[in-house]
Amino acid sequence: MSRPIAVGVDGSDGSLAAVDWAADEAALRAAPLRLVYATQWIPHQPQAVRMTHEERAEEAGDVLGAMEERARARRPQLTLAAEEVEDAPARVLLDAGSEADILVVGTHGLSGIGGFMVGSVGQEVVADAKQPVVLVRPDYREDAHGEHGRNKVVLGLDIDDAADEVLEFAFDYAARRGVPLHVLHSWHAPFLHRHRVAADTDSGPRAEMASALAQAVRPYRDKYPAVDVAEESAIGRPADRLVEEAADARLVVLGRRRGHGSHIGSTTHALIHHAACPVTVVPHG
Prior knowledge:
285 residues; Rossmann fold; 20% strand; UspA
């Protein structure tokens, strides 16, 4: 059996959207869906609002039951598992992700006990996960036929670090859904200086970067001949260009090199906060 798609739930609008995305992905892959709810005792929480162990367990059961019902209504064929884990949310999600093909989380969770994507917790999950992490905004809406006007996948590719894991994820996702893939590489002034090329000539950075981009993508064009691929090499800040392309995309895919500690990079940070569609961060290296 395929490894599961794991999704963190907490009852927030973000986790509702994450469950929808995860259920669709699990159904498409014929993979199990695992719903995970994290609870943790907060020692410095005021006594007046502190929940007992029994109250927290009851709340977890209510949330997991509602999320399981939602997933089954959306994709009745799914094999489902749902569990409460009493530990810090980041550790719970990272552990669940280590046993899954994909970890899915909502980008806005509840503060306190159930919150997944609040401040440093979300960054820790993205920075430390061993598997791809999909970040889903609360306003995500997509039916079984795809969201209106959102029928492309955008891959933000660093041609100096064009990892196979990142390319494979983007091409595979586009192929499974039969949608076009837009591969975007953009650069700004420091990149031009590093490569010592003139910015105003056709034989300069545009031609050089376009050639490098085509070379990086070619093996996956050959592997996925049915995917309609557009390549773009453009001057500009990568985060700005990717946020712009995300406006009519159904998914943005980014890479993250392992071993950089808790730093997720300015481009990933910008996309998590500003992309109008789900964002996948694929670890590699």
